[in-house]
Amino acid sequence: MSGARRWLASEAPRWPRGAIVAALVAVVVSVVVLGLTGCLGGGAERAADRPVVVALAEEPENLNPVFGDIFGSFYGDKWPMFNGLLRRDENLELEPDLAAAPPEISEDGKTVTVRLRKGVRFHDGRELTADDVVFTYRSILDPKVATTLRDLLADVLARVEAVDRHTVRFSLKRLDPAFPDKLEFGIVPKHLLEGKDLNKASFNLKPIGTGPFVFKQFRRGDRLVLGANPGYFRGKPKVPRLVFAFVENENQRATLAENGGIDLDASAVSPRIAARLRGDPDLRVVRVPSDARVMVLPNDNAVLRDARVRRALGLAIDRRAIVDGVFQGAATPAYGPLMPGHWAHDPDLRASSDPGRARRELAAAGWRDRDRDDVLEKDGRELRFPLIYSAGSSVEKGTALAVRSDLAGVGVETELKGLGFDAMTDELGKGSAIINEQATVFDPELDFADLYASRFARDDEPFSNPAAVRDREIDRSIAGGASTLDRAKRIPPYHRLQRELLDNGGWHYLVRVTREYPVSRELQGVIPLRREGHLHGFSRAMLANVEDWSLGSGR
Q1: pLDDT computed for residue 538 by the predictor
Q2: Alpha carbon 552 to chain centroid, angstroms
Q3: Could you tell me if 257 and 518 are in contact, meaning their C-beta atoms sit under 8 angstroms apart?
Q4: Contact, 9 vs 229, CB < 8 A?
Q5: HSE of 449 in the Cβ direction (CA atoms, 13 Å)?
Q6: Cα–Cα distances in Å, from 7 out to 258, 468, 516?
Q7: b vs e for 525-550, b when ≥16 Cβ sit within 10 Å of the residue's Cβ?
Q8: Where are the domains of the chain?
Q9: Which CATH architecture has domain 289-513?
Q10: Residue 13: C-alpha distances to residues 9, 313, 422, 460 (Å)
Q11: Other CB atoms closer than 10 Å to residue 202's CB: what's the count?
Q12: Distances from the Cα of 112 to the Cαs of 65, 177, 180, 182, 185, in angstroms?
């Protein structure tokens, strides 16, 4: 899957599960499970024995990390049954996981050597070796395996081999400063999967990994149950079991949180519901910065070809009003693809709201209200275009309505269309303007070329460079940021890129959402990451240190 595809949040598939009946079953079963295990009022003595229950809005089809996370993407989580060679600390910096030390990278950047921890065992007792790592990465590269992770490796990984029992060597086709990010994939056991069709393996629904929790049960439309791994190399987790309850409806998840039926909602709730839950003395609502809302104005759209027009539309938008009115303060104004705190973020980047200047820019581009109907015209054409947004969410619609109102204020008429994923994909291919989520990237090299480079404009992938940007300066900045492993030398070209995107006007970053997660006060030790990666339903932010959680009195 290309990095560009990950910018569209509504790509998240909706698995059929008999919507109304299954949702009700999820709620009822979750409460019953908790009641049977004594979590509804069991006191401190029972708390040590009961499971921690985590609500998720989405249900996986496959638990094998070779195929990605719930969404088959790079930015979500491995289930806590698995480990990668590296993992993220709470500041999203990479640190060793199955690796015994940070990767050793050759001077030319094309050889990456990883030395493994010794004595790590899979849940069936078999020791993890370099052969398992080699098997995992070769499986991802295997064209017969239906994994969307392959796109992240195919153009860079030439060879992976075991040097000895506990050493792996990756040989790259080119320097890739983002390759360490690709060492997070969960490692699977060669001895259980070699020679099998991974697409159909029973392992995919009953997996065995090295992680802090062991697979116990998976009921479609209901729950996934994991047990603590007593042999985990970092020590046995403090909670005996994890129950992931699949509850798509956020109102139902909120009710479960209020009634003590879940310990954590890992799919987050809307600002409206979060405000209600903050008044519950048995809950705390944890806030974590997340994805941005972005308006994409294709450079080849008939009415948006002039960069002055595209820039003017960005000047017309009041970001602070969207933060306060649509997101009720659970967001911050956004000006570019990297959030504050990211090593490549440009702290001086700004995109002010200035409707007066927007009107002057539009006038300079030849657009005027000649017939006094409050819509600008030029050469017999009105400044009017469809604006697509993701249907099904009040905040997505609210953002689109706010943008429409601001644009109308400077004489631009937009026709809002709330569409599902497939229809949005079609509109992207046609060059329509669109508002949606964009990922919080880790290393910019993972996404920036796919999102902004000229060579991806109007290729056969609608999510690649959806703004159809063709700009040599932007291309040079992307290449400059990917040309070295020295982070300090990568910062200047990425700063230039962020300013060049503002000048092009094809991408207008509006707000960066703060996702809000209800957590029971009884659940202790939850340390969220400083910010999320690209997420939809299964939160890396809240589950990063799940093996350290514990249950207490909460008071």
Answers
A1: 40
A2: 31
A3: yes
A4: no
A5: 14
A6: 33, 15, 20
A7: ebebbbbbbbbbbbbbbbbbbbbbbe
A8: 82-194, 289-513
A9: Roll (3.10)
A10: 10, 32, 10, 21
A11: 9
A12: 22, 11, 9, 12, 15
Q: How far apart are CA 311 and CA 299, in angstroms?
A: 11
**Strand-pair category, 507-520 with 331-333:** antiparallel
Q: Please name the amino acid found at residue 522.
A: E
Instruction: Point out which residues pair with 217 in neighbouring strands.
Output: 225
Torsion of CA 85, 91, 92, 98, to 10 degrees: 10
Structure confidence at residue 465 (pLDDT): 92
End-to-end CA distance of the chain: 45
Dist CA 485 CA 467 (whole Å): 29
Check: CB of residue 321 under 8 Å from CB of residue 511. no
- How many CB atoms within 10 Å of residue 399? 25
Q: What's CA 443's distance to the chain center, in Å?
A: 13
Segments in the chain below pLDDT 50: 1-45, 71-76, 535-539, 555
- Over its C-alpha atoms, the chain yields an Rg (Å, rounded) of 24
**Tokens 């987790």 identify what position?**
237
Q: Which two tokens stand for residue 183?
A: 């060492």
| Three-state SS at 73 | coil
- Alpha-carbon span 78 to 454, nearest angstrom: 33
* Residue 162 CB partners (closer than 8 Å, separation 6+): 129, 130, 131, 133, 134, 168, 169
Query: Token pair 């020590």 is at which residue?
Result: 235
427 alpha-carbon distance from chain centroid? 22
Look at the chain and count its residues. Answer: 555
Instruction: Please name the residue that has the structure tokens 């295997």.
Output: 142
Architecture of the 82-194 domain: Alpha-Beta Complex (3.90)
Pairing of strands 94-96, 507-520: unpaired
Question: Which pLDDT does position 385 carry in this prediction?
Answer: 96
Alpha carbon distances (Å) from 162 to 132, 169, 426: 9, 6, 44
Structure tokens at 520: 């029971």
Neighbours of 48 (CB within 10 A): 13
Q: Quote the CA–CA distance of 152 and 371 in Å, as a whole number.
A: 53
pLDDT given for residue 341 in this prediction = 86
368-to-306, 377, 380, 410, 413 alpha-carbon distances in Å: 15, 5, 11, 10, 13
Distance from C-alpha of 472 to C-alpha of 432, rounded to nearest angstrom: 23
Q: Tally Cβ neighbours within 10 Å of residue 173.
A: 12
Q: Tell me how crowded residue 381 is: count the other CB atoms within 10 A of its CB.
A: 11
Report d(CA 285, CA 274) in Å as an integer: 7
Q: Which amino acid is located at 305 in the chain?
A: R
Nearest CA-CA partner of 140 in 93, 95, 185, 205: 185
> Which amino acid belongs to residue 175?
L
Other Cβ atoms less than 10 A from the Cβ of 345: the count is 18
Q: Model's pTM, two decimal places?
A: 0.87
Tally Cβ neighbours within 10 Å of residue 30: 24
Q: What pLDDT does 529 receive?
A: 78
